[in-house]
């Protein structure tokens, strides 16, 4: 992707390791059996490189009961959109008479790539699996289903916002990391920012101080903060907190430090996917959706919009960011849902749109926030969030935690220092050619 400027194309879909590559040999379809009149739980996980999927079973209703391991008030649907990294628990209720509903009692299980959230070299096989009701092989052998899919929307999006209602209600508090008196949040120190714009930039090269590989020239990489992210495997941030100012000064580490907070206080963040604005130091913006994943927390999804955050005078568009100046980023703003909002840890950032998320400052540590498209994360689309820095050493000191980490790091450095272990052992500097995420 970096050398050509073109995103790679996908070649096939798998369900639990089973699928067809292009026009090659057709393997047996992935198959599950249902008992008539009984409920069956399926755990749906999207582990794709670059595709949001729409999952469905012909002529069956899915009862959605969990999103990213958060129990929700159940709702019924014929299909479910699953972004990369997202997990859904669903109940499939078997028909009372599976053979009466559909000939042979067989039904297609489909994984349809979402429009504008996928790129395939050729049309993939979407009939990914078979749901059967008869465990005894018929005299003429197993038959492929003749079922037809229901009509549903396949646009790139998350499940409907108002459907994801947590079973256990919770209420979000105002942000501890946003000063309502700040007139221009973009003038804050880089490590105190709370608005992050996803885009690309030409970075690195032989005359650059950035540690990117390859470095024969500048390449276009993804980013969302100061620079494309790149962590050194041999120098983990968790063991370098005594050098915090040094870390902050390195733009490629993309450090965001949060104010000291108590367990019941909230941190808010805004993530945008601009089209072509704002104009920032050569950064390139174009519409693309990104499944954003936060480690260490579930977050509340206060708002998710496909409208631009920024103004665009060329087309007369007024950005929605004007509704959320620092003095309005609080729970008194009726455009934000603080009363039992959706709760999860992966959210689809809409192309040209934005999301506003919040999480409790109740898990001191260093947490990655990154895009779950594999080559975006590898390219540098990530930041690291340092939460309650002063409390981390005490937590690490429990039960020999720090010693165990240091021992692992010593073993790692001993292995890594031998060039023969490198994939490109002729060039030891090429050991790590991605962001480290």
Automatic annotation (TrEMBL):
CDD domains: CuRO_2_MaLCC_like (cd13880), CuRO_3_MaLCC_like (cd13901). Residues 5-134, 254-389 form the Plastocyanin-like domain. Keywords: Metal-binding, Oxidoreductase. The keyword Metal-binding applies. InterPro entries: Cu-oxidase_2nd, Cu-oxidase_C, Cu-oxidase_fam, Cu_oxidase_CS, Cu_oxidase_Cu_BS, Cupredoxin. Transmembrane segments: none annotated. SUPFAM superfamilies: Cupredoxins. It comes from the Eukaryota. PANTHER family: MULTI-COPPER OXIDASE, OXIDOREDUCTASE TPCJ. Belongs to the multicopper oxidase family. This is Multicopper oxidase. It comes from Podospora bellae-mahoneyi.
């Amino acid at each position: 992707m970096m050398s050509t400027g073109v995103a790679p194309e996908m070649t096939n879909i798998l369900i639990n390791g089973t699928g067809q590559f292009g026009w090659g040999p057709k393997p047996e379809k992935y198959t599950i059996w249902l008992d008539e009149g009984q409920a069956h739980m399926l755990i749906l996980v999207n582990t794709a490189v670059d595709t949001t999927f729409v999952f469905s079973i012909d002529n069956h209703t899915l009862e959605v009961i969990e999103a990213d391991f958060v129990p929700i008030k159940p709702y019924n649907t014929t299909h479910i959109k699953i972004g990369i990294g997202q997990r859904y628990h669903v109940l499939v209720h078997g028909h009372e008479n599976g053979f009466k509903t559909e000939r042979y009692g067989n039904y297609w299980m489909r994984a349809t790539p979402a429009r504008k959230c996928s790129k395939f070299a050729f049309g993939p096989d979407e009939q990914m699996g078979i749901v059967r009701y008869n465990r005894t092989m018929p005299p003429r052998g197993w038959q492929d289903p003749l079922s037809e899919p229901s009509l549903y929307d396949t646009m790139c999006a998350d499940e409907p916002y108002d459907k994801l209602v947590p079973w256990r209600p919770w209420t979000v508090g105002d942000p501890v990391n946003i000063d309502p008196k700040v007139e221009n949040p973009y003038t804050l120190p880089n490590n105190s920012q709370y608005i992050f714009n996803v885009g690309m930039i030409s970075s690195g090269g032989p005359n650059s101080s950035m540690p990117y590989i390859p470095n024969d020239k500048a390449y276009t990489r993804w980013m969302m903060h100061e620079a494309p992210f790149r962590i050194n495997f041999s120098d983990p941030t968790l063991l370098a907190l005594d050098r915090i100012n040094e870390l902050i000064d390195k733009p490629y580490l993309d450090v965001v430090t949060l104010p000291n907070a108590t367990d019941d206080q909230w941190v808010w963040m805004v993530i945008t996917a601009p089209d072509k604005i704002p104009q920032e130091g050569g950064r390139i913006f174009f519409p693309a959706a990104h499944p954003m994943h936060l480690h260490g927390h579930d977050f509340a999804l206060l708002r998710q919009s496909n409208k631009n955050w920024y103004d665009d005078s060329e087309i007369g568009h007024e950005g929605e960011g004007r509704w959320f100046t620092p003095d309005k980023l609080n729970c008194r703003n009726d455009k934000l849902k603080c009363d039992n909002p959706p709760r999860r840890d992966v959210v689809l950032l809409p192309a040209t749109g934005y999301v506003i998320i919040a999480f409790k400052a109740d898990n001191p540590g260093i947490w990655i926030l990154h895009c779950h498209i594999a080559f975006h994360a590898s390219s540098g689309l990530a930041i690291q969030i340092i939460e309650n820095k002063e409390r981390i050493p005490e937590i690490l000191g429990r039960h020999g935690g720090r010693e165990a980490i240091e021992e692992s790091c010593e073993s790692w450095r001993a292995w890594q220092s031998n060039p023969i272990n490198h994939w490109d052992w002729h060039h030891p500097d090429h050991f790590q050619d991605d962001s480290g995420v």
